[in-house]
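Note to self: keep these together.
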Amino acid sequence: MKRWFIYILPFIIAPILNVSSEMYGMTYQDSTERHELIVYVVPSLQYIDWQSPSTLFKTTAKSWIKSKFTRYSYYIGHLFIELRSSLLDEPLLISVRSTGGDREKKRLLLHDKVGVGIIGAALPGRTETTEELTASIDHNLKKERRMAFIKYSINRDAALRIVKYIEGFTARDSTSYASCDAYGGAFWPRYQGEGAGCTAFGMVALEVAGIKYDYEDWLHRVNIPANLVGGEFNNNLKVKNRTIKRQKTWDEGLGIKNTDFFPFFIYDPSLIYSWIIEQREKYVADSTLSAHQFYPAVIKRDRGEIPGLYMDARHVPAPVSEPIFIKRDEYSVFIDAFTRSHHRK
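Structure:
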C-alpha cells in the first residue's frame, strides 16, 4: 500500500464511522457517562373494563378476589421505574404502593360508602424497595405472567432531575410527613406535597426529564356521576353498591363540574402494556426506521426475558429552567379532601 494512502485513510473512513454511529436513531455518547430510565408495567391480574361504572365495579371486584390467591399479583396492575446512572452508586428500582390494606378500602366502601370515589381517595402509602421489586419481577417471570417495559437513554440533565424528583418525593418535612406517605389515583406527584399512584409516580419521572408521556392511549378519562361519589367527597352521601352496578354510562360532562360530575383521569398499566406490545407488532409489520421513535428491545434475566421498547432520548432537552415541584393549578375534590384531612392531623 502506498504511504500517501495510509495518511489519508482516516479521513476516508471517518465519515463512514459517523454514519454508522447514527444509524437506527442512535447517537454516540462517551461510555464513561451513561443514563437510562426504564419504565416497567404489569397489567391487571384480570381484565378491568372501564366502559361504565358498572363494568368497572364488577371487573375490579373479580380481579381483586383472584389476587387474594395469587402471590406477587397486582389486581389493578402496577408500574415501577428503574434509573441506571453514573450519578448513582447503583441502579435504583422504585415505585409506590398502598399500605392501607383491605381494612382501609373496606372502611371507605362499607362504612363511609364513598362509592366510585374510592378511585380518587387517599390511602396510606410508601415506596417499594429495589429488593421487593426485584423479587416481584423474578416471580412474575417464573410464573410467565405478562410484563413489559420502555427503556429510554437520557442525558445527564434529565437523570439529575429524576434524582431530585425522587429525593424530594421521599424527603420528610418538619412534621415527619413525606409525599410518599400518601397513595391514591387522584394524586399527581409533580404538585407540591401530593402523594402518587404507581403510574402517576412513573409519568412524573418522565415529565421532569422532558420526555413525552401524555399518550391518550395510556390513560382513562371519565366523568364520575355525582350520585356515585359519597362520603367526604360529596356531602357525606352514602352510595350503595347496587347503585353503582346499575349505572351503565359515565356522565357526559354537560352539567356543573365538581357538582354534577367529578372529572377523573388515570394512567393504566394495562393500557401501557397493550400499547408497548402493539408498537412492537407495528415495527415488525413496517420496520422502516424513519417511521419509528421506539424500537423493539428485550431485557434478559435469569428467569426469562421481558419484551419492551427502546428510545434514544439523549437529544431531548430536559426542562432545567422549571422547578421540579410546582403548585397544583386545577381543583380536585379528592385532593381538597386529602388536604383538609392532612391539615387536621
